[in-house]
Amino acid sequence: MNKKLSSMLIILLAYIVAFAAGIVTYLFLPDSFLLVYKLLIADLVATVLIWLISLPLKNASLYDPYWSVLPPIMIALVMIEYGRFDLPLIFLLVAISVWAIRLTYNWGKLWTDFSHVDWRYLNFQKMAPKWYWLISFLAVMLVPTLIVFAQLVGPAFLLSFNGSLNFGTFTILGVTIIILAALLQLVADTQMQNYKKNPLNRGRIMRQGLWKYSRHPNYLGEVAVWWGVYLIYVQQFGFDGVIVAPVIMTLMFVFISVPLLEKKILKTRPEYRDYIKEAGMLVPFPKQLFTKKPIEQEK
């Protein structure tokens, strides 16, 4: 058995144990608890189990697929618990499942074995080796779990509390955005992976396909997914404070994920500064709009 297959089986077993612990926790919590609190506690228990298993494996990347695996499971649990199979909830579940399957598949394709660790986690470990056990829980696992949970609180839970659900323009728009965003991520990741396969491109900056116009089209797709989820919610409740969820997700990518990644790239490839001037961070923009034209001399 090769290293990738054996490590994948260990990961599968870890997730079965974690989700089983979460389900048992959910079932034993008193009925007086609101569903949202029961699910949050069960989610946190599963996260803690993944963290505990990651410690002897010395690999916090064990958590990476949690981001995409959990959302469709949680939405389905809400629908089953409340016996709600309204069209908007079904479309939300289908759209999120398309995104989740695509993202999880991409993770599995790139995974090698337990020697593979996200570079950000390695940086955390170098900065505070004695406290990495705690940092890996708080920063790598707990915060992402809470962020993803926040994205689902409004759309899934509040929709289930509502009476009859309307299937309208915002529902269609939200579902369309989620699926198109998943397709955008698929195309972007495929283009990047094909580019890296060519030995001639080693150390060079990807400036082809979607990457010609956006420096992080895959991140753009991720942000768009959660705005699509919010629009499905808007169909029923209008624009309200729940908008803070996709806003937080957007800010996390714009001010944390992208800057950290680009700082790393600039250390080894200073020519990346030119690329920053040519392509948008997330949203594409035509280069010519940001290029100063020479002033023509008066005749």
How would you characterize the overall build of this protein?
The protein has helices at 3-28, 35-57, 66-82, 87-110, 119-127, 132-161, 169-197, 217-237, 244-268, 272-278. The chain contains ten helices and no strands. It has two domains: 1-157, no CATH class; 166-286, no CATH class. With 299 residues, it is an all-alpha fold. Helices cover 71% and strands 0% of the residues. The radius of gyration is 21 Å and the shape is globular.
Essential attributes:
299 residues, single chain, disordered C terminus, mainly alpha, 10 helices, 2 domains
List the topology elements.
Blueprint: H1 3-28, H2 35-57, H3 66-82, H4 87-110, H5 119-127, H6 132-161, H7 169-197, H8 217-237, H9 244-268, H10 272-278
Q: Estimate the global geometry from the Cα principal axes.
A: globular
Can you tell me the number of structural domains? Answer: 2
**Count of alpha and pi helical runs:** 10
Which structural class fits the helix and strand makeup? mainly alpha
Secondary-structure element order, N to C: HHHHHHHHHH
- Rg value: 21 Å
The description of the largest β-sheet is: none
Strand content: under 5%
* Share of helix, binned: over 70%
Low-confidence stretches: 288-299
Number of strand elements: 0
Question: What separation lies between the terminal Cα atoms?
Answer: 77 Å
Look at the structure and give the mean pLDDT: 89
Provide a compact summary of the structure.
The chain is mainly alpha-helical and 299 residues long.
